[in-house]
Amino acid sequence: MLLNVILLTVQVAVVATAINLPLSLIIANYQDKLPVKFKFVLDVLISLPLALPPVVTGYFLLILFSPNGFLGDMFYSVFGFDIVFTWFSASIASALVSFPLIVRPIMLSFANIDPNLVNSARSLGANKFQCFYKIKLNLALPGILAGIILGFTRSLGEFGATIMVAGNIPGKTQTLPLAIYTSVQVGDESKIYVLVGLSIGLALVSLSLYNLILYRDKNSNKNR
Amino acid sequence: MHSFKIQVFKKTGNFLLDIFIQQQADILGLYGVSGSGKTTLLNCVAGFQQPDSGKIEIDNQVFFDASKNTNMLIEKRRLGYVSQFSTLFPNMSVNKNISFGFDHTPKNERIYSPADIISFLGIGHLIDRNINGLSGGEKQLVSLARAIASSPKGLLLDEPLSSLDSRSKIGLIQKIRLIKTELNIPILYVSHSPSEIMFLCDQVSVISKGNIINSGKSSIIFNYDDLNNIDIENFFECEVIDSSNLKLAHQKIFISNKIFDTQNKIPISLNSSDIIVSTNNPAGISAQNVFYGKLIDYFVSGNSVLILSDIGEEIWSKITLDSFNRLKLSKGSDIYLIIKTSNINFQN
């Protein structure tokens, strides 16, 4: 039971991060090509999940992905099943809530790349795509890793949006925070301690990795 | 000789760049003070910025032609670019930086291999180094090597010497001259230094406030009043023969008694004004170091002439115009350079 909760939590967080990463890389790569006004609107939209209560985000997702909703109807016609109250809907909820945390460090690290390096690479015969994966991805790697860890960590702890769109079904959509909530509801104290300990442990490991990356990046910048 | 036909019209805010250049040169200099528009022009040639209108053509290869909607992609232009700030990729070693250009050149258009270039520019000792550990001069040399390894149709050098110390400057100038004589690549050289333009460029266009205000042979365009104040420091690394002799350009150079560790090379410098020039092998003189060579090039300005000679190494000397005329010197003249022991400067 406990192992199932942990595996499901990690699965939801991994998929949420996998959804966010390509989108974050595309936005980061093209951010300097956007008109200023559009960039302003994009910045606001990216930050919106940070400002909104996750329950509100979950409510909008529920409307969109319910069988009568625009995306839910489309999903059903393509895949033949409802997406709400599945682990995948928990991943989508986690992806939306954690998106600002993953995209921000990646955008920042791309913005810090000297455009002359990219111009030089192109003058040496590399096309835009080769510049992206041979130069930009390498130089932005610390920011990309930091974004992945922050987003992943946030997904591990996602509660409000997840319970709205995926429910709290043991063995199916019950992630670690939802299991803690249920244990508190039924007063299972011994289980609470284990789950809370696990939650803290996962968060500590993730944040230690994040800080380690920041520390190493700062040191390598000093040596440049 | 290469042909440069550059017509660029570009408006950026209140600044208007309106350029017309049509010159034949091995190295075409683009001279102007900061803010005159020379880097913007170079960026247009490289393809980093797009002109509003005009035509850019080097050696009959059209890179941009607004009238025909031609705007070649940066990577298709294959114009090697070296700027004053290092644009070496910090995530790669020197070797990988140099190979980057080679790897992205179509196989049927590759002329120089990285190994050829490394040997040509004498940077074999740097190839396994990390970019962060290189000096400014070494970074520029590697940038040049990387640009040449892409077998470029031209080289665009944007003030490559401006952030270097005088020793590195002379080293890089000699390498650029070597590229000019050996590789036959058209070079567009941007600088705000008249002396750099004079040493390197046969032709120059002077740019001011976005317009070309003068163009022609650099020695005519620049009547260098400041040449009288220019002294070039020649730098060499000499093998130690014994406590009184070093080896310079396969010859012995005598020094007053100094004890050296014979395992190491000794860096020395010779000021161009401290070298005496003769057309005959002098006898009965106190100076003990006489080097035979050929006069490669010279630059006249006011009452001074800077002479570049080949004694097995390139070396600059400076004499008066009166002496230059009296000795009837010209390119290819046999020449003897006399160096007093007391004028040899030890760098360490």
Describe the structure.
The complex is a heterodimer of chains A (224) and B (348). Chain A has 224 residues and is an all-alpha fold. Chain A has a single domain (2-223), classed as MetI-like (MetI-like fold), CATH 1.10.3720.10. Chain A is 81% helix and 0% strand. In chain A, helix 6 (115-123) packs across helix 7, helix 8 (141-156) runs antiparallel to helix 11 (189-223) and helix 10 runs antiparallel to helix 11. Chain A starts with a helix and ends with a helix. In chain B, strand 18 and strand 19 (314-320) form a beta hairpin. With 348 residues, chain B is an alpha+beta fold. In chain B, the strands form 4 sheets. A 6-stranded mixed β-sheet of chain B has the order 7-8-9-3-10-11, sandwiched between helices. A 5-stranded antiparallel β-sheet of chain B has the order 2-1-4-5-6, covered by helices on one side. Chain B is globular, with a radius of gyration of 22 Å. Chain B is built from 9 helices and 21 strands. Chain B has 2 domains: 2-222, P-loop containing nucleotide triphosphate hydrolases (Rossmann fold), CATH 3.40.50.300; 229-346, OB fold (Dihydrolipoamide Acetyltransferase, E2P). The longest helix of chain B is centred in the middle third of the chain and has 18 residues, at 166-183. Chains A and B meet through helix 6 and helix 7 of A and helix 2 and strand 7 of B.
